[in-house]
Write a structure and sequence with these properties.
- By secondary structure, the chain is α/β, with parallel strands linked by helices.
- It has 4 domains: 74 residues, 2-Layer Sandwich (Alpha-Beta Plaits), CATH 3.30.70; 65 residues, no CATH class; 172 residues, Rossmann fold; 136 residues, no CATH class.
- 44% of the residues lie in helices and 17% in strands.
- It contains 21 helices and 16 strands.
- Helix 9 links the parallel strand 13 and strand 14.
- Helix 14 packs antiparallel against helix 15.
- The chain is globular, with a radius of gyration of 27 Å.
């Protein structure tokens, strides 16, 4: 008889082998086995289908209860449940059927892990190109689990360091930056430091919790009366005032908003800096533009995860990570790079890849990306498309779907496997329109505007204007925020999203 056994165990090395070994040593076959995390990062859930009669099954459960690492055993045999098996399908489909296949895959939360790339010529006809290896003309999408640094298809330019443990690995080719991974980092460095996280917002909570779970000595420095105190303490973190945190620590990560950092630094951090300390940031704004000038006898480093804080935390708990940029503006002790690498290991960035950069590069590229593409450019593009359709008499709900709702789906396809995969997944009419209409919307005038935006960032004009608005109580920022919050596209979106029961699950 089949029994479905759910075992809640400690998330530690060797526990799974002890559980499965106990079952197999008694001559019982495990037909199916799955392991997954729980909401508690210290616990995992083992679900096994065991072939055994009732008497033997009872013996198994009694023996499992004797294991110290086992917290709870639940019999799911008679419970309603969804069972999934790992299946790989290979489908030969014409281009006009691909959207249907993708929709079916999405219903079952399946993933397309391997596709043959098809490109359109100027007449809209399709031709197939066979992959000839990593540099071939067709891209191969390979499932890599928690190893996002593994890539197929043509790679950007990469220079790699030899790894610390001496393990040999095929060198990626042709990259202009240096990328490090876990084997390039020394965890003992960050574990040996007293770390202060100043601030507990989006990035602050992610850095603090990830470092804590990595075995580091972490305390969180907050202002008296901060609303974040309770949340940090509930998460199991030690909370002090900012001055105490800075005084205790020999690595201080400043994660309050950019506009608050100079005051926080001068008031709470600078008086407690000691020679040999490390001052760290997740964005180079204040150091690069000179609003914070640390003393010469301390290290100044950066570890900047390339994603929002909640993603940094979530991917860490799932066993993966968000790529980080690391920079060193001042190496007072001679090992600042090693400290930065070790810190990136602690927050989980080295699992995905850590890119070596400079404070100037990170600051200027980050601001440009936010302003010209990710936030400024994207929002204005969506608004312009929405307004064009509405002004032409189309219902706002339809305009929302076409210019706003579907945007995420397109971006997800690009994020997953590149522009070529997005083009493979859309219709021929959509792809033809991309090549025809895209250059008309984003044209030389647009590129000139981007160059002007970049120049204002590089020469400090943007920084000066931003700081001036901060000192004026964010008057201009708040005015613009109110304008977008009351825009018809937001009101329409609120109505549309209210239709989706699943969006708030």
């Amino acid at each position: 008889m089949k029994h479905v056994l759910s075992v809640l165990v400690e998330n530690r090395p060797g526990v799974l082998s002890r559980v499965t070994g106990l079952i197999s040593r008694r001559g019982f076959n495990i037909e199916s086995l799955s392991v997954g995390p729980t909401e508690d990062p210290t616990l995992s859930r083992v679900t096994a289908i065991v072939l055994a009669d009732d008497v033997a099954y009872e013996q198994i459960t009694k023996q499992l209860h004797k294991l110290i690492s086992v917290h709870k055993i639940t019999d799911l045999t008679d419970e309603g449940a969804i069972e999934r098996e790992l299946v790989l399908f290979k489908v030969n489909a014409a281009p006009e059927r691909r959207s249907e296949i993708i929709e079916i895959a999405n219903i079952f939360r399946a993933k397309i892990v391997d596709v043959g790339k098809k490109l359109a010529d100027h007449r809209g006809h399709r031709r197939r190109r066979e992959a000839s290896g990593p540099g071939g003309s067709a891209a191969r999408l390979r499932h890599q689990g928690n190893c996002p640094h593994r890539q197929s298809g043509p790679l950007p330019q990469l220079a790699r360091l030899g790894n610390r443990k001496g393990n040999k690995r095929k060198e990626p080719k042709l990259m202009a930056v240096t990328i490090y991974y876990e084997q390039d980092c020394n965890p003992d460095i960050i574990k040996d430091k007293k770390i202060a996280i100043i601030g507990y917002g989006s990035q602050g909570h992610a850095h603090a919790l990830n470092l804590k779970d990595s075995g580091c000595d972490v305390r969180v420095g907050l202002r008296e009366g901060s609303h974040s105190i309770e949340a940090a303490e509930e998460a199991g973190l030690r909370v002090t005032d900012m001055a105490t945190a800075a005084e205790e620590a020999d690595l201080i990560m400043v994660l309050v908003p950019d506009e608050l950092q100079p005051e926080v630094y001068e008031t709470y951090i600078a008086p407690h800096l000691k020679a040999g300390d490390t001052l760290a940031f997740a964005h180079g704004f204040n150091v690069h533009y000179g609003y914070i000038t640390p003393p010469e006898d301390v290290n100044v480093i950066m570890c900047a995860p390339k994603g929002p804080g909640h993603i940094v935390r979530r991917q860490y708990t799932e066993g993966s990570g968000v790529p980080d940029l690391i920079c060193v503006a001042q190496d007072a002790t001679g090992d600042a790079w090693d400290i930065a690498l070790s810190y990136a290991w602690g927050v989980g960035g080295a699992r995905a890849g850590v890119i070596k950069a400079t404070f100037a590069q990170e600051t200027e590229e980050d601001l440009f990306g936010e302003q010209a593409v990710l936030c400024g450019g994207l929002v204005e593009l969506v608004k312009a498309g929405f307004e064009t359709l509405v002004d032409a008499g189309y219902p706002p709900e339809l305009a929302y779907f076409e210019c706003y709702h579907e945007m995420k789906m397109i971006v997800d396809l690009m994020y997953e496997s590149g522009i070529h995969f997005m083009n493979y997944s859309i219709s021929n009419t959509a792809e033809y329109g991309e090549y025809y209409a895209g250059p008309k919307v984003i044209n030389e005038q647009s590129r000139e505007a981007m160059r002007e935006i970049l120049a204002r960032i590089q020469d400090g004009t943007f920084a000066e204007e931003f700081v001036a608005d901060c000192k004026n109580g964010h008057a201009w920022l708040l005015e613009q925020r109110e304008a977008i919050n009351t825009h018809e596209i937001e009101k329409t979106g609120e109505r549309i999203r209210g239709m989706f029961s699943w969006i708030h699950e």
